[in-house]
Specification:
This protein is an alpha/beta fold and about 270 residues long. The protein folds into two domains: about 5-55; about 75-270, Alpha-Beta Barrel (TIM Barrel). The chain contains ten helices and eight strands. The chain has helices at about 5-25, 35-55, 90-100, 110-115, 115-125, 145-160, 175-185, 205-215, 240-255, 260-270; strands at about 75-80, 105, 125-130, 165-170, 190, 195, 220-225, 260. The strands form two sheets. Strands 1, 2, 3, 6, 7 and 8 form a six-stranded parallel sheet that branches. Helix 3 (about 90-100) links the parallel strand 1 and strand 2 (about 105). Helix 1 (about 5-25) runs antiparallel to helix 2 (about 35-55). The longest helix is centred in the first third of the chain and has 22 residues, at about 35-55. It is globular and about 70 Å long. The mean pLDDT is about 90. The structure holds zinc ion (ZN).
Length: about 270
């Protein structure tokens, strides 16, 4: 049996607001009357919340998305999306190895298929999560399509690395109810982030590091990119991101931060 979700109640509120507003208007009550305005406000508020949560990487309404740990400890999880991508992923592995930092990588299966050895190299030291197969917008997709994308991504990562991912991050960060419930039914925990740097726009390395540092908090998850979505390869240029990573690590260490993987961060989470 499906578990009831909070969003069912919010959807009911939105429908109720719309129904009451419509019924009162049809019945001839003035639109500006207090009950009509109140019903419309409740309906619109609930609908607005649903849309906001649909598009948020911190979505809670449709199901759990782990985007930070509730902990006072100065720990951060660095996450990198859209790899593996030669030569940037190798460069990043070199930086992380020198700094002795373990990170979490969310890989589209198509990129893993293109560079399976590089994916295996990443997985030998770091955590690899599922980022679908072809990196589509799943926001409005049917459950069957979501399931197929996640399962194909899972297969490619397993074939290349010998490991079965336990984490999933939706492409573009837009979680809808069907995405979260499908990932959960496949045994995957959805992961978001607490700080990002818009590094896909290729700002200077200093801007990337400043944005991450400014948004870093105890228990946070940063989002950066060592690759690009499957169609964009081989135009991907992640040199600025790779240049920013040592600065981010150094500066956070000066503030007494240490670095953990997303599963390690989850184990520190005191939240519900
Ligand atoms: Zn992505």
């Amino acid at each position: 049996m499906k578990r009831p979700r909070a969003w069912h109640a919010v959807a009911g509120l939105a429908a109720c607001g719309a129904t009451v507003t419509g019924a009162r208007t049809v019945a001839g009550y003035p639109r500006s009357s207090t009950p009509t305005v109140s019903a419309a406000a409740v309906g619109l508020g609930a609908a607005g919340l649903m849309v906001h949560q649909w598009l948020s990487p911190r979505s809670r309404l449709y199901g759990p998305v782990f985007w930070h740990a509730k902990t006072p400890r100065r720990v951060m999880a660095l996450t990198f999306d859209d790899g593996p991508c030669h030569p940037f992923t190798e460069q990043l592995l070199g930086v992380l190895d020198r700094e002795r930092v373990r990170a979490t990588f969310f890989m589209p299966g198509a990129n893993v298929r293109r560079e399976p050895q590089l994916a295996a190299e990443v997985a030998s030291e770091h955590v690899v999560g599922n980022h679908t197969f072809s990196h589509p917008h799943l926001t409005w997709s049917r459950t069957g399509k979501v399931r197929q994308e996640i399962e194909r991504g899972q297969e490619e990562i397993q074939d290349a690395t010998g490991r079965e991912p336990e984490l999933f991050r939706v492409p573009h960060g837009w979680y809808g109810p069907q995405v979260i419930s499908t990932a959960e039914s496949l045994g995957l925990r959805c992961v978001g982030w607490s700080v990002m740097a818009w590094d896909w726009n290729r700002p200077p390395a200093q801007t990337i590091s400043q944005r991450i540092l400014r948004g870093s908090t105890p228990g946070g998850i940063s989002l950066l990119h060592d690759g690009q979505n499957t169609d964009a390869f081989p135009e991907a240029d992640r040199s600025r991101t790779i240049a920013a990573v040592p600065r981010i690590i150094d500066s956070l260490r000066e503030e007494d931060y240490c670095f953990v993987t997303v599963p390690e961060l989850r184990s520190l989470d005191a939240g519900p």
